[in-house]
Design brief:
The structure holds 3 protein chains of 3 kinds. In chain A, strand 13 and strand 14 form a beta hairpin. Chain A has a 7-stranded mixed β-sheet with strand order 7-6-8-9-10-13-14, with helices on both faces. A 3-stranded parallel β-sheet of chain A has the order 3-4-5, sandwiched between helices. Chain A has a two-stranded parallel ribbon with strand order 1-2. Chain A is α/β, with parallel strands linked by helices. In chain B, helix 11 crosses helix 12. Chain B has one domain: ABC transporter involved in vitamin B12 uptake, BtuC. In chain B, strands 1-2 form a two-stranded antiparallel sheet. Chain C is mainly α. Chain C has a domain of 226 residues. Helix content of chain C is 71%, strand content 3%. Chain C has a two-stranded antiparallel sheet with strand order 1-4. The chains are: A alpha/beta, B mainly alpha, C mainly alpha.
Chain lengths: 438, 312, 358
């Protein structure tokens, strides 16, 4: 048999065997697909996100025996942060009848939003995704609590105003937005533009083209403008280079604020000392000093089931992901109080998400007191009443340095509702009447 | 209409004249960035010159070299030893590529060899990440990424060092090609494979040598780019920044890679800073290609390219 | 054994020049086509349709388009992703501006728009060749993607910056948009690929195709015998871009549903080029086979450890998958540089003589 015949036969076999999908779900389990990216250019961000989910679900299963006795089955699928691979993963894991998906990529979220109502799967894009989907009247299946990009941008402006000593002091101040030239990066622009008009600061928008390895021109422009504050919306390698370039031109680092996807350990490490003082937005506290982390160490890591390295527990994105997992399981728990302690359907979980109310007391029980603010969802408002904070890198770790900042909901919400109408119209949705929902 | 004309044709120049110090900064930024592109383009040129292979995997080789170096440093290997080991790894890689990829594909069309390097690209991506992990790693080469100011012009130390390194590397390579026995053999192979073979130049050895040299160039490029952004997967994407340099400078010319890099670097920075805002910015990526393309239309063989480009 | 053409005599030039001159071939192809139209919508799961077959068909169409340019006319292009983006955005603009126009017509019109853009970006091919041209076509790739990203008009000023396929029906059946079934979208894609593959096959057998091949094989000689390089090359760019444009429109309307420019990045251009080279340059069937290979092999590699009961960490699995995929490409090129189409041809020849090879 020569090589060519071998090749022909191997190819034929591969095509015939094809994508054999194994599906097995034990009774009394709920399945959650995890679309992760542990490889590829975005892996530095994807790894802690994936680990947090694994650890929190393992904690729930091992410590509590699941959510009210219903164990959570989960399986990772590697997307490389690529939309098409994400869709493939979603379709493949749909065979195991999930009722919830956390896409962890804005691109994949956009793919899943139109599918959600038909598949009856809740899409939870926690702090990313489509801002307009925060209007629950138009997008019943999509949730982006605790906050949207627009609320975040308004919280940033509020923070700057605080630092400058009042909203009136913003007048004439120069603020630069350095953003990834993609729909994600542009998200903050309309909000910042509106606020610049209202509050009278000078806004300059500087786009960085994907992937953002070379930003010399952008930072030369920043140097010439010499702004008071810089807001960065980056992702992937753009983050590390932006932090490094800001330090290299000698810009005061405590006046550079990243959005919450531009403020992780991986983003500041390459810049070393230069990154000291760099700030970023966040909606939760970093670090592993909370009780939930002790539980994770005890019930997951001490049994050798930890997904991350022990010292990586408590990284910014790790915490973000356990909070995301906590909110998901809390919604399940709530839905079970109404529908019984058995695996939920998509509609039931959706009810749970929509009526979610995580109180201060509940956060304490969960071991997350102080890690984030209490959160409450309604039928209309799928971003909830989340608040943001500013954290700072001191060369070794991130620490929260501001109070919790309420976003300017009065500015953001009307714009958001207008956008929701426009986006929903494209999908042919009709508005539901929240007054009729119980 | 006249407004538009003014914005495009007059305003940027008055802007330049208005703040000459800033213009110098932009030009310097372009020169430094350009030399960084040249570092990557050099690897392409070396391989194309000697074996006619458009090595798409050069970007991944940069990544792989940087990952290996940082991985060794993280495990406590002293710098000099780590550099030596990384060089050894790149040479071993050259041997493996010659034996497993080039030799079986000898005499195939260029596009097939190009495709094979894309296969190699996939392999090295997976392999590098499997061995060294996907996290961002800090690479500290002991030169602070700080700036100093000379007559109102800000200069970055790290970039200055990178530029000097690139300059030294090119000089060394040029000498290597012109003065040494192997260098002459390389040029002979580039001119005519068969003639070179017939006078007893061992083709296989030459291939291993160029791929090894390209590997060493990849280490330098990896260190310089890695010091900027941290060593991470995205390093492999810098190959895309080197391509316009290649068409401008010619696939077969070492000085072309350098001069091409400078033109592209300066061109795209000046374009982005002075004309970018007119259309909303972030034009660098395509502007470099358009610049190269415009140049190419006027001079199809590239800056220093040989007149006959029908070989591909 | 299976193939016996004995007794089939050609009595006219037309029958001698048919695409499938052997009766068995015709029968097999027609049966296969009928099976493709009937089988998957009845049998395949939504996963198969949505995640494998639909992208497969769309990529096939794009690969046929690129094969016309690269395989037949010999012009190496890496701008495929950009031309597909033109098709997608043109289709989106057209169908939102004129909702009453049939979506099939919209696809064709957006193909024409892409063809126009392709003509413009094909102009450098008159001066430069080979890898220089390949890199030069990257200019169109980067410029077009930047343009669609930058100018909000292209996405109808959507706050999200993405384009979304609206519901559109053909003959009363919804084929695009969120409420279209996977089967309907599959059938639309299949019908388009079938028609365009047939058109392409006839194109390359005719005067146009022969002039492309003349330019590819020896441009100077071609010029001497009266093939005009300007027209021929531009025509190749135009028609190839038309195919890519239709494929790009399908990518958004039949497969992804909504997309941002990232979906048309340089990776897509390379992907389509792989399909052409792996499938076989200068072969319409090869383009389809190449798409099958590039789509199915990674999915097979992802699922193989699962099927064997191996539970590898996903990251490791992906890394192994990349290594195996890369290795496979090199191995493949060494064993059969002329691609899958050539393998298929050899298999066919063997089957013809089997079981008496001599």
């Amino acid at each position: 048999m020569n090589a060519r015949t071998l090749l022909t036969m191997a190819l034929a076999a591969a095509v015939a065997a094809g994508p054999a999908v194994t599906t097995a779900l034990a009774a009394g389990e709920m399945f959650v697909p995890l679309l992760v990216y542990r490889t590829g250019p975005y892996a530095p961000n994807g790894i802690p996100l994936a680990n947090g989910f694994n650890d929190y679900f393992n904690l729930i299963n091992d410590r509590d025996g699941g959510v009210n006795g219903v164990r959570i089955a989960f399986e990772e699928c590697e997307t490389q942060y690529d939309t098409k691979q994400g869709v493939e993963c979603y379709e493949r894991l749909k065979g195991r009848s999930p009722v919830l998906v956390n896409p962890f990529s804005t691109g994949i979220t956009y793919q899943l939003i139109p599918k959600a109502p038909g598949d009856k799967i809740v899409v939870h894009s926690s702090g990313y995704g489509m801002t307009a989907s925060a209007d629950g009247r138009w997008f019943p299946w999509v949730f982006n609590f605790p906050m949207t990009y627009w609320s975040q941008a308004s919280a940033f402006v509020k923070y700057v105003a605080q630092q400058e000593g009042g909203t009136d002091k913003l007048k004439g101040k120069k603020i630069v937005h350095v953003y990834h030239n993609s729909p994600y990066g542009k998200e903050a622009n309309p909000t910042l533009e509106t606020l610049a008009r209202d509050l009278g600061f000078e806004l300059t928008l500087l786009a960085v083209d994907h992937p953002g390895q070379e930003q010399k021109a952008t930072w030369l422009q920043v140097r010439r403008l010499n702004p008071a504050w810089i807001y960065v919306s980056g992702w992937g390698v753009m983050n590390q280079v932006a932090v490094k370039e800001a330090a290299a031109i000698g810009f005061p680092m405590d006046h550079v604020v990243g959005n919450w996807w531009t403020g992780t350990e991986a983003d500041v490490v390459p810049a070393g000392e230069g990154a000291k003082g760099y700030k970023s937005m966040t909606f939760h506290a970093p670090g592993h000093g909370f009780k939930v982390h002790q539980d994770i160490f005890k019930h997951v890591y001490d049994k050798g089931k930890g997904a991350a390295k022990r010292e990586d527990v408590g990284e910014v994105l790790y915490n973000r992901s356990i909070i995301n997992a906590m909110l998901d399981t809390e919604a399940m728990r709530l839905a079970m109080t109404r529908f019984g302690n058995k695996p939920l359907t998509g509609e039931q979980l959706r009810w749970g998400m929509e009526n979610l109310n995580v109180t201060e007391k509940r956060l304490e029980e969960l071991g997350m007191k102080g890690m984030l603010r209490p959160l409450r969802m309604t039928c209309e408002n799928h971003e909830g009443n989340g608040t943001a904070a500013v954290q700072q890198w001191d060369g070794k770790k991130w620490t929260i340095i501001s109070d919790w900042i309420e976003p300017m909901r009065d500015v953001v919400r009307p714009k958001l509702e207008a956008a929701a109408v426009e986006e929903a119209k494209k999908l042919g949705y009709v508005m539901r009447d929240c007054a009729k929902e119980k | 209409m006249t407004d538009l004309l003014y914005l495009v044709a007059v305003a940027p120049f008055t802007d330049m004249a208005g703040s000459p110090a800033f213009l110098v900064e932009v030009l310097l930024g372009g020169v430094f960035a350009g030399l960084m592109y040249s570092l990557v383009a050099l690897g392409f040129v070396l391989i194309f010159k000697a074996s006619g292979v458009f090595n798409f995997a050069q970007g991944v080789m940069v990544l792989f070299a940087a990952l290996t170096l940082v991985g060794l440093l993280e495990r406590g290997v002293p710098v000099v030893v780590a550099l030596a080991l990384t060089t050894a790894v790149m040479v071993a890689l050259a041997f493996a590529i010659e034996r497993l990829v080039l030799r079986p594909l000898v005499n195939q069309e260029h596009i097939i060899l190009f495709m094979a390097t894309i296969g190699l690209n996939f392999f090295l991506e997976g392999f590098g990440e499997m061995v060294w992990g996907a996290n961002v790693k800090r690479l500290d080469i002991g030169i602070p990424d700080r700036s100093f100011i000379v007559r109102g012009v800000q200069i970055n130390q790290l970039e200055l060092t990178a530029a000097l390194t690139a300059a030294v590397l090119v000089t060394v390579l040029a000498l290597f090609f012109q003065k040494t026995r192997i260098g002459r053999a390389l040029r002979a192979v580039a001119d005519d494979h068969e003639a070179a073979l017939s006078i007893g130049i061992p083709l296989k050895t030459i291939w291993v040598v160029v791929w090894s040299v390209a590997g060493v160039v990849a280490i330098v490029a990896g260190v310089m780019w890695g010091a900027k952004s941290g060593v991470q997967f995205s390093l492999s994407l810098i190959a895309l920044k080197a391509l316009p340099v290649l068409i401008l400078g010619g696939f077969e010319s070492v000085p072309g890679a350098i001069v091409g890099g400078l033109i592209i670097g300066v061109g795209e920075k000046v374009g982005e800073v002075y004309w970018g805002p007119l259309v909303g910015g972030a034009i660098e990526n395509w502007f470099a290609y358009v610049l190269a393309l415009a140049f190419l239309l006027a001079r199809p063989q590239g800056l220093f390219g040989e007149k006959i480009i029908e070989r591909v | 054994m299976i193939y016996r053409e004995a007794g089939q005599f050609k009595t006219s030039y037309a029958s001698d020049q048919a695409i499938f001159p052997i009766a068995q071939d015709r029968a097999v192809v027609l049966l296969a086509l009928a099976a493709a139209f009937v089988g998957p919508p009845l049998l395949a799961s939504e996963y198969w349709l949505q995640a494998i077959l639909i992208p497969l068909l769309i990529y096939s169409l794009a690969a046929i388009g690129l094969n016309l340019l690269t395989g037949y006319a010999g012009q190496l292009s890496l701008g495929t992703g950009g031309f597909m983006a033109v098709g997608a955005y043109a289709a989106f603009k057209l169908t939102t501006a004129f909702p009453q126009v049939s979506i099939v017509l919209v696809f064709l019109l957006s193909g024409l728009v892409a063809a126009g853009v392709g003509l413009v970006f094909g102009i450098p091919s008159l001066r430069i060749k080979g890898f220089y041209l390949a890199v030069a076509t990257l200019a169109s790739q980067f410029f077009l993607v930047w343009l669609f990203n930058k100018v909000a008009w292209f996405s109808n000023y959507a706050s999200s910056g993405t384009i979304t396929a609206p519901d559109r029906a053909v003959l009363g059946v919804t084929v695009t948009g969120p409420s279209a079934t996977a089967s309907a979208r599959y059938l639309t894609a299949l019908a388009l690929v079938t028609v365009f593959a047939l058109v392409a096959k006839n194109l390359v057998r005719g005067r146009v195709g022969r002039s492309w091949m003349a330019i590819r094989d020896r441009d100077i000689a071609a010029e001497i015998i009266g093939v005009r390089p300007l027209r021929t090359k531009l025509l190749a760019f135009g028609i190839s871009s038309f195919y890519c444009g239709v494929a790009g429109a399908e990518l958004v309307f039949l497969y992804l549903g909504s997309a941002e420019t990232q979906a048309f990045d340089i990776g897509l251009s390379f992907l389509i080029l792989f399909m052409v080279i792996i499938g076989g340059r200068g072969s319409i069937l090869g383009s389809v086979l190449g798409a099958v290979f590039i789509v199915l092999v990674p999915i097979f590699l992802t699922n193989a450890p699962h099927a064997l009961g191996l539970r590898l960490p996903v990251a490791l699995q992906k890394q192994i998958e990349l290594m195996v995929f890369g290795g496979l490409i090199v191995f493949f090129l060494i064993v059969e540089p002329r691609g899958l189409a050539r393998l298929w041809q050899i298999t066919k020849e063997k089957l013809r003589l089997w079981p008496f090879p001599h």
